[in-house]
Design a protein that fits this description.
Chain lengths: 158, 66
């Protein structure tokens, strides 16, 4: 029976470290790495992805605000004009304003994620998590444990 | 159309496509650069927020393992 040195579970990521292996389970995969094949472990912030999400968020926000302005202009024209078309403009303007405000309020702010990077011979594997989520302290503890286990492992096997 | 005329016309079309692609690529790169520069304050703010407690936690556990 392998001795478990460290293990924990946060949203979509389960990590378990034994004397010889590192087990990683996500919502879509379950992988086991031999410690002898691991060269290093690190944590990287996914800045590129966050930048792209932020740009997308700003574009959507600008779109909604433009529609609110358009709806306001239509509603204003409906107010100052007369006739059945005026009522149509007013109603359409109010609907556009209402829908755009609803969508603008429901627009979620982008969140920068990080990933635990396992560096091996031939490549590396990344596993995403959120540094400010509940349980991220356990990820820090786990990374520190793997760091000390790796150095102890390679020292004892050299 | 003779061989030479065909050759010249094909070369013209290929060159104009290459030039157009270069313009488009420069435009997209410049646009991406401006967007990144506009996003920089928010990125730095997010990095500081995320890493404030993370660094302390990691150091705390590293010292514990020493």
């Amino acid at each position: 029976m392998e001795k478990i040195l460290s293990e924990f579970s946060i949203a979509n990521l389960d990590l378990k470290l034994t004397e010889d292996k590192l087990h990683i389970k996500t919502s879509s995969s379950f992988e086991t790495f031999a410690l002898r094949s691991i060269n290093g472990i690190g944590v990287v912030d996914l800045i590129e992805k966050y930048n792209a999400d932020l740009t997308e968020h700003k574009k959507k926000r600008t779109g909604h605000i433009s529609r609110i302005i358009l709806g306001s202009i239509l509603a204003f024209l409906g107010l100052i004009a007369s006739g059945p078309e005026a009522i149509f403009c007013l109603v359409l303007g109010i609907i556009i304003i209402g829908i755009s405000i609803f969508l603008l309020n429901n627009l979620s702010k982008p969140n920068m994620l990080s990933s635990v990077r396992i560096m091996m011979i031939g490549g590396s594997r990344d596993f995403e998590f959120d540094k400010t989520s509940f349980g991220s302290g356990k990820v820090a503890e786990f990374v520190a444990n793997v760091e000390s286990t790796l150095s102890a492992y390679h020292r004892s096997n050299n | 159309m003779g061989f030479w005329n065909t050759f010249v016309k094909v070369w013209q079309v290929r060159t104009s496509i290459r030039i157009q692609e270069r313009f488009e690529s420069s435009y997209h790169l410049a646009k991406k650069k401006i967007e990144t520069e506009n996003n920089l304050p928010q990125i730095i703010n997010e990095l500081n927020t995320k890493n404030a407690t993370w660094e302390e936690e990691l150091e705390k556990h590293r010292k514990k393992n020493e």
